[in-house]
Specification:
Blueprint: H1 2-5, H2 10-17, H3 31-46, E1 53-59, H4 70-78, E2 83-87, H5 93-106, E3 112-120, H6 130-133, E4 138-145, E5 152-159, E6 167-168, E7 177-178, H7 180-201, E8 211-214, H8 219-229, H9 240-243, H10 250-260, E9 269-276, E10 280-287
Parallel strand pairs: 1-2, 1-3, 8-9
Antiparallel strand pairs: 3-4, 5-10, 6-7, 9-10
This protein binds oxa(dethia)-CoA.
Oxa(dethia)-CoA binds near residues 134 and 181.
């Protein structure tokens, strides 16, 4: 399809990005509808009921409307009766949302929290721009954090707002503008530095990581980060061949797939690390707590 629309080739896309398939919403599907499906699946997997959810955080940079927040529609769709907010830290958004929710749960003032990453990037991707149209996809993933067992050992959140121009949707424009190679170069650097910062705060090293779940942006970025961290490929979750870059949804989709595939065992050390527009970056070190 893409070869017929822009000057590209399947071979170039696979070789330079690792992406073979992406998912795109059909008419009627929205960021909220994807988030509701993922949220319902997470609530079911956690074995709780919607009324036990006391906080909803939705990470997205593709809100369906400017107002109200996407989380409002998600709260209604899931039949929740709790507070709800959006977090926008682009592709680092899920980890930002997870850390925000975990901090609230750990105060003991809210019970279980539902954290969802959901995007419809196809709506803001220029179909005629070969630099972005081959990368971005739609999707959603979610997890439940429970009181007394959020599993969060340590985290690192960062932002360099002076780099906002390398990946943006300028005011009044519809589509993403991206300096791909600039984002690439910086991404490897910040993911590695952020992952090390979280590990250090948790008193652990790369050798202690059982499962590494990086933001799924480009297979070459993931490989370079793994090499620099010294985390072997067989401990790294990669599914971008099937979804492309789904921004805030990429880490929770990979987390959910790893969980469903039995790759996460009770007590495993799990490292999540993302980066994105802002530029933002975020890493979370978890001790895996099964449902
Ligand atoms: O979630 C965070 C969001 N963004 C990212 O993580 C994106 C990070 N960047 C990337 O993944 C890569 O930079 C891209 C996949 C976007 C581009 O790959 P690259 O290896 O960095 O290519 P490049 O930008 O250095 O361009 C190399 C060549 C250029 O042609 P010339 O100037 O050498 O003739 C590009 O115009 O590849 C060309 N090119 C393409 N060719 C075929 C760029 N996109 C395409 C394409 N098909 N789709």
């Amino acid at each position: 399809d893409l070869e017929g629309r822009v000057d590209t080739s399947d071979a170039w896309i696979v070789e330079r990005t690792g992406i073979r398939e992406r998912r795109v919403v059909t008419s009627g599907e929205t960021t909220a509808s994807l988030a509701i499906a993922a949220g319902a699946a997470a609530i079911k997997a956690a074995g709780i009921t919607p009324d036990e959810v006391e906080l909803l955080v939705v990470a997205t940079c593709t809100a369906d409307q400017q107002l109200p927040a996407t989380s409002a529609a998600v709260q209604d769709g899931l039949g929740l009766s709790c507070g709800a907010l959006d977090v926008d830290a682009a592709c680092a958004g899920f980890v930002y949302a997870l850390v925000t929710a975990a901090a609230m749960v750990e105060t003991g003032r809210v019970g279980a929290a539902l954290v969802i990453g959901a995007e419809t990037l196809s709506r803001i991707t220029d179909p005629d721009d070969r630099g972005t149209v081959v990368l971005f996809g739609d999707g959603a993933g979610a997890c439940v954090l429970r009181p007394g067992r959020t599993g969060l050992l340590a985290f690192d959140l960062g932002c360099d707002g002076s780099l906002g121009g390398i990946l943006e949707v300028p005011v009044g424009e519809r589509y993403i503008r991206m300096e791909g190679s600039e984002v690439f170069r910086r991404a490897v650097r910040v993911v590695v530095a952020s992952a090390y910062a979280a590990l250090e705060r948790g008193g652990l090293g790369p050798g202690d990581v059982d499962v590494f779940i990086p933001h799924q942006a480009n297979a070459r970025i993931v490989s370079a980060a793994c090499d620099r961290l010294g985390i072997p490929r067989d401990r790294t979750v990669m599914n971008l061949d099937r979804y492309g870059n789904t921004s805030a949804a990429s880490i929770p989709i990979a987390l959910a797939e790893a969980c469903e595939a039995g790759r996460l065992r009770e007590g495993d050390v799990v490292l999540l690390s993302g980066f994105g527009a802002g530029m933002t970056w975020a890493s979370a070190l978890l001790r895996w707590e099964a449902a």
